[in-house]
Amino acid sequence: MKRHTLQPPNLTTAKQLTLVLPAVTIGGLVFLSLIANGFLVNPSTQAGRISLIFGAAGLLYMIFISIWGIPLLRKQPFFSWSLAIVSGLGVGVVDLFQPELMPGIPLPLSITIVVILALLAGRWPTYLFALMVIIANVLIYIFAFTGQTEMFILEAVLIPAFAVVITETIIGLRNTLLVEMTRLQTLNRVARSLASSLEMHQVVSLVSSAIQNAFAADTYYVGMLQGESLHMELFFDDGEFFPATDIEIKGTLAGRVVESQQSLLIRNLVAERQKRNLPFKIVGRQRASSSWMGTPLKMNGHVAGIIGVASYLKEAFDEGDLELLENIAQQAALALDNAGHHAEVETRSQQDSLTGVLNHNAFLTRLERQAREAVVSKKPLALIMLDIDHFKLYNDQFGHLTGDEVLTNLCQVIRRHVKKADLVGRWGGEEFVISLPNANGPQAFHVAERIRTTVENLAIKDRVGQLIPAPTVSQGIALLVDENMDFIQLVDLADQCLYVAKDHGGNGIEPSLFALEENLQQPEIQDTEV
Fold first, then answer.
1. What b/e sequence results for 2-27 when a residue is b if at least 16 CB atoms lie within 10 Å of its CB, and e otherwise?
2. Could you give the residue range(s) of every CATH 3.30.450.40 domain in the chain?
3. pTM to 2 decimals?
4. What number does CATH give the domain 200-346?
């Protein structure tokens, strides 16, 4: 998979100037000392004029870097090489005229420019500058020998040594800063994205993107605890997303995280398995990981799941990676908890408060979707409209609480005889409606008959514990026959059939004409219980 790579830190011009300001200040002081030396020596002498010229030129150089150099480096990356070459030539010229200047000027000047270039231009332009200074020293020593052998040797040794030490130190600090900036930016993006996510699949998708951008991971997963198993909401391995699956957590690394409620980092998984004689389970590709880290998803003080990240390479992760994963997990756990509450509120808003089945509006919304799907797929859709016979008598004789008990018992019966894909809704009062996708007339009639016979054999007690007469139900069945019939017409037809059944005395089933034509006397029955 694509691995994350470090990019140059996106520092503003002002921040870059702040970084180089100490070095620029030192360089400015060096050149000011040359100007002061020129006046002290006597500006009319050659040594004085040279000192003044070099001091003024160097001061302008430092001003140029501060005002125009940094913006140019941001806009034109190749300018870093030009700056290194010009700086190297400048120090070489200073070295050539060193006898006329203050002693030892090239060394502090070179160190100052090394710091500036390392901060602004990077490693290789800085090394190019150091190489040019060394070449200039050698040429000056050979062709314009001044007898300063000690100074030549000192500069030839110290300048490259300082260049390497300073450059590598600055680059190392720069890369460390970059890693931390990358992690903070990743966490900031994740936090902003997750804060507005109220759906489980959105949260999982955002966590997936965050892991891909933040870690060199070959495998990662988001798992939620379900008893002794871990349900993989998200599972990615070696470039492929796998379907959601359940794995037993006993004896797994995920199990260790859940049991300890602490994060776990294993840099060398092969050695750890051999050392502890650990069993392992391979899920996804048949290839074992070599490094692994995982952290718990904690909600309301308890572990609700885990995020695991793995690589086929050893030492792929460090403590900084684990800390970032922990931060991502904290944000993800909060978002998942919010998504769970949102889903719960959303579900309750669609449910009838007494019976728990869909309310009128929610049922119609879903029925409309089922009707469109049935027309497109050319598959049947049956609708049962159901009403409790003489329900008012239960309220009048036994009280409304007993009437509520009749309603809840009826809904429990309906749920026992329908599939998970079927819809059950409260149409209003004691009237209910059932949608049966992929069910033809005989199958719908069979479901209705099982509901009818089960209801008339219910044992329901009143408030004092006495059995009351079992209720009966009347039902009407309608079928969605073609694309010219919409879901409203389907409901109206089922409702008409229901009232025909009630007119016949109740406790019966009245199919529509189309349902009747499907040979209801000997239906081809399918088991619809879950």
1. eeeeeeebebeeeebbebbeebbebb
2. 200-346
3. 0.61
4. 3.30.450.40
